[in-house]
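Incident log, structure service

09:12 report received: a user says their structure output differs between two submissions of the same chain.
09:20 pulled the input from the user's history:
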Amino acid sequence: MRFEEAYEGWQSGRLTQEEAARLLGVCDRTFRRYIARYEEEGLEGLVDRRLTQVSHRKAPVDEVMALVERYRSRHMGWNVKHFHAWYQREGGKRSYTWVKNRLQEAGVV
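09:34 re-ran on a clean worker, output below:
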């Protein structure tokens, strides 16, 4: 059920807040939060804002590009395990899985 239908049912008195929340699959406190945001901002207030935020732990693009370029220029053909060992000896701080995933995303391994 969509929020607007549950909200309309609650506004008209056909549903309690608890019943409307149950129909949406949330707790009644969450439904009250939705009501407050909906009344202030409309449907835009119900959009999950976490999806638009960039992680503060995400690696800078230039770091990823430098890693891939280093692999392409000097270490092409190395397996990821050997490249990661070299990367750590040179002062790299990222995990093996992170390095492997970035190289795979770039299509070089």
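09:41 both user submissions now match this output. Likely a transient worker issue. Closing.
09:42 reviewer note: The two ends are 45 Å apart (CA to CA). The chain is about 60% helix and 0% strand.
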